[in-house]
Write a structure and sequence with these properties.
alpha+beta; 2 domains; two-stranded parallel sheet; about 65% helix
Length: about 475
């Protein structure tokens, strides 16, 4: 009897996006205690005592994206990829540079034959003097600089740069999905406000009908059909219960807005509280398919990843060839208990200062391992290539499906507009007939129910049209709110 009210509980009319986003982001709100829920009800009744902030669509999306963790996680993923680029760049200059230090205790050395301190090395009878010891320290710096390695580092840098572009596209895909959820939440709020407004108008209309019935009961009690009166009372009672459910749904959406935007001390409302159908027309299917192939973040991410894999293979091939390197080392050691030996042919562990540099050619001879690593890189590139083909096929099917859904939603919206127009004329006729005494309560109530149901259905079809069109734009890689801008 009041079918239109039960529809308000369907996810598609509150928006699949609202339910999904709420389950992911606001699960603790749903499971709040009764005390917290009572506080939320109090805030609803006292909302006009707080500041009211009106948010446009773009402002709502921007503020929400700043608050959500998905946005920050996506940004961190891009930063990690950029960090890897810098890591490869750092290998261009002194990729191997380290310092070693050694510390210990060394005894002195004595010459039984009385050789001078700087000639003790000539005494074959020289021995350690453990009565005279001291701390010894040695520091060594070793560095290696590649001079020619067949462009391996530059190719690795380019491969990492492609990885950054792939990460950026993946991040963009995540943000588009989040924006779509926020899109539904924004217009879901407008739908809830519209339904609330329509129910208020319906309440006034029912009160008018009820006063007319009471007046007729006083003036012409014989013309009143009590069965129809009871039906009207049952309808009114059920309507009141469903109206309470609508208020709870509206409260839920408002609290979701407050949580997402971090606004605990202000009433947030859409800048335009009226829900209107998107402007403009739906383009051809081929247009959306072409846009999807060029714009979809998933396709672009795999394309960049494949290019990065190709460049990485080129970098791995450099391992098969010998590389030219320059190395240098510097050592300083000091032990107070040991006399310094100045002969260049004598190496003293206790006291020394020397530097050396030279060139070397390095060749990895583990060709079997290099071949296996190269094969794995080629297999990874092939996997990315076929994944790209698979995602393109998936994108084409998604675009076709969402194009169909958007076209059907548009047709339903246009049909609901025409049906509502006819029903308004019917209700106007029944009200006039009843006022002139030639109509009856049943016809007025039927027309009233039908008109209210279609009013709500018309707003629901507008919402469906907005969401399905946004979904079509999303799978085509276009702006989600394209036709509403």
């Amino acid at each position: 009897m009041i079918k239109f009210m039960t529809h308000l509980l369907y996810p598609k009319y509150l928006g699949h996006c609202i339910i999904a986003l709420s389950l992911v982001l606001f699960i603790h709100i749903i499971s709040a205690t009764s005390w917290a829920y009572t506080k939320a009800l109090d805030s609803l009744y006292n909302e006009f005592a707080r500041d009211t902030v009106y948010l446009g669509y773009n402002e709502f999306i921007d503020r929400a994206l700043e608050q959500l963790g998905q946005t920050k996680a996506a940004q961190v993923s891009v930063s990690l990829a950029q960090n890897q680029v810098q890591e490869f760049r750092d290998q261009r200059f002194l990729p191997s540079l380290r310092m070693e230090s050694e510390h210990g205790i060394l005894p002195s050395v004595i010459s039984p034959r009385g050789y001078p301190d700087n000639e003790i090395y000539l005494d074959p009878s020289a021995t350690y003097d453990w009565d005279n010891w001291d701390f010894a320290n040695r520091f060594r710096v070793i560095g290696v600089q590649p001079l020619f390695i067949w462009g391996a580092v530059d190719k690795a840098v380019k491969a990492a740069q492609f990885g950054v572009q792939s990460a950026e596209q993946q991040s963009l895909s995540t943000l588009q999905e989040v924006e779509f959820q926020l899109h539904g939440l924004y217009f879901g709020y407008k739908l809830a406000l519209e339904i609330e407004r329509l129910l208020e108008l319906a309440t006034k209309t029912m009160n008018t009908v009820e006063r007319s019935i009471d007046q007729q009961r006083k003036n012409s009690p014989d013309q009143i059909n009590e069965s129809e009166i009871y039906k009207f009372k049952v309808f009114k009672a059920q309507y009141k219960a469903k109206k309470d459910e609508v208020n709870q749904n509206l409260l839920f959406v408002r609290e979701s807005w407050n949580y997402i935007l971090g606004a605990d001390h202000a009433v947030l409302l859409p800048a335009d509280i009226y829900l209107e159908a998107p402007k403009g027309k739906i383009s051809s299917l081929s247009f959306y398919q072409q846009m999807a192939l060029f714009n979809r973040s998933e396709v672009q991410a795999l394309a960049y990843a494949e290019q990065g894999a190709r460049m990485f293979i080129e970098a791995k091939k450099a391992e098969y060839r010998p590389g030219l390197f320059m190395g240098f080392t510097g050592t300083y050691a000091h032990a107070p208990s040991r006399p310094r030996q100045d002969n260049p042919f004598i190496s003293s562990d206790g006291n020394t200062l020397n530097m050396a540099f030279g060139f070397s050619i390095r060749q990895n001879l583990n060709f079997s391992q290099m071949k296996t690593n190269l094969k794995r890189a080629e297999l990874e590139m092939n996997r990315l290539y076929f994944q790209q083909k698979a995602i393109q096929d998936k994108v084409m099917l998604e675009v076709h499906e969402k194009y169909r859904d958007a076209s059907i939603a548009k047709s339903k919206y246009e049909g609901s507009v025409e049906s509502l127009k006819i029903t308004k004329e019917w209700l106007r006729m029944e009200q006039l007939d009843y006022d002139f005494g030639i109509g009856n309560v049943r016809d007025v109530v039927d027309a009233l129910k039908q008109e209210l149901e279609l009013r709500i259905e018309e707003k629901e079809t507008v919402f469906d049209y907005i969401i399905n069109l946004a979904n079509l734009n999303k799978v085509a890689g276009l702006s989600i709110n394209k036709l509403n801008e």
